[in-house]
Amino acid sequence: MFRSFSVFNYRVWFIGALVSNTGAWMQATALSWVVLTELTANDAAAMGVTMALQFAPPLLLVGVTGLVADRFDRRRLLVLTQTLLLVLGVAIGVLILVGAMTLPLMYAFALALGVVAAFDNPARQAFVSDLVTRENASNAVALNAASFNGARMIGPALAGIVIVAVGTGWVFLVNGVTFFAMIIALMLIRTHELIPRAKASGASRLADGFRYVGRRPDLVVTFAMVFLVGAFGMNFPIFASTMALEFGQEADGYGLLSSILAIGSLAGALLAARRDRARIRVVIGGTLLFAVAATVSAAMPTYWTYAATLMFTGFAVVTMLTTANGYVQTTTDPALRGRVLALYMAILMGGTPIGAPIVGWVAAELGPRAAILLGAAGAFVAFAIGATWLIVSGRLHRHEEKRFRLTIDETRPLRVVPPEEFSDEIAGTTPIPLPQSGEDALVGRSRSAG
Question: Distance between CA 99 and CA 93 in Å, rounded?
Fold first, then answer.
């Protein structure tokens, strides 16, 4: 489960990311609460607009951000983006503390955060492949998700306590301090131990990533499922905050809901780290589980029963997304990985500008339960797409020996390790071919053919 920790660079990265992610979750919680309760009169639609402004840039800038992640030094790029995010967070906190923050100004900051995150996300996702060898990439991605959701257990609850105790502005200042953990970690990374990056043959073009995905039906299906769940099902700030208000809770109650959601999310990430590799069948199964869990949560009558269902919701969504991320990373041509991951992140996050305003409007007009059911409906449609692809592609069929049993063929493409990548593990376990006589060579070819 923790095999990637044997790499010094990954250990440093993981610790820095855990601290920084805790601050990021504190800021996300405070941002939603400020818009909902301080800048508006419990207007969920305004929250939807804020989320849309944050997540629109990754979709609009997908070609440029992916190319930047592939062509420039990712470590230096991350130092720059993390520094900019630090400055923006501190500026928001100061404006709130001095009473100068307004809703239009918050919209502007949300857009600025989205633009910086558009460059930060694909570089951060692809940088994991620079830290560990290809055979450990899926494990490293899953542990990254564990770090993300471990921080999610701490950050929102801590933000709720700080908001109640001293106010929302201080949450943004605390987040600014946590960015130093990531920046220091990036400085401590041993650059000579980074995995050599594959170089694209010929001139790198923005359209190469789109063409590559277009030739991979498995990636197209994965991206379609991720889009629907991201657009309608992952609007947790809207769901949790409006449900908290319905149950008569304050900011600490809202933050606790987000932390409880993270308990299931962390479990899903750790189980994903145990798997030898990422498979689409797990993505499809996780989507169905998420749809069912969201439907059940919408019917819960009390605060604590709703909170209990959030653990299953978090487990399902992280199982799906972590597996999808790992699948994309480990089966994509390394020379195009940054562009493909930028497209993946744009589809995941870019669905929010479409879905969040709709979900926010539904929550404001019809109530938060109707909004949750809308997210569940999107997940059911995503599951239908994945299940249909399994059947049509011929991968799901009857077992050859048992009449009432179904079997699923392997959906992962053959792995190709390009010569630019080197692994001590592969070098130590790959047999060295010896010269053969003519008769021996003929026997060898016959066995290979068999």
Answer: 10
In this predicted model, what pLDDT tens digit does every residue of 339-350 receive, in sequence order? Answer: 787 788 778 777
Could you tell me which residue, 56 or 27, shows the higher pLDDT?
Answer: 27
Which tokens is 346 given?
């744009």
| Predicted pLDDT at 439 | 47
Task: Express each pLDDT in 270-297 by its tens digit.
Answer: 777 677 677 888 899 999 999 999 999 9
Integer Cα distance of 24 and 26 in angstroms: 5
Token output for 67 = 């190319």
Note the pLDDT of residue 255: 83
Show the DSSP H helices in 215-250 as ranges. 217-228, 236-246
pLDDT one-digit tens code per residue, 350-362: 777 788 889 989 9
DSSP for 91-102 reads HHHHHHHTT---
Asked if 418 contacts 198 with a C-beta cutoff of 8 angstroms, the reply is yes
What is the CA angle 231-111-80, rounded to 5?
110
Look at residues 1, 250, 335 and name the one whose alpha carbon lies nearest to residue 136. 1
Q: What is the number of other CB atoms lying within 10 angstroms of the CB of residue 212?
A: 18
Point out which residues pair with 396 in neighbouring strands: 408
Q: Are 61 and 50 in contact (CB under 8 A)?
A: no
Q: What is the pTM of this model?
A: 0.67
- Residues near 284 by Cβ (< 8 Å), separated by ≥ 6? 225, 383, 386, 387, 390
268 vs 114: CA distance, rounded Å: 27
User: Exposure of 103 by Cβ count < 10 A (0-12 exposed, 13-18 middle, 19+ buried)?
Assistant: middle
The tokens describing 219, both together, are 């990636």
Q: What confidence score (pLDDT) does residue 370 get?
A: 94
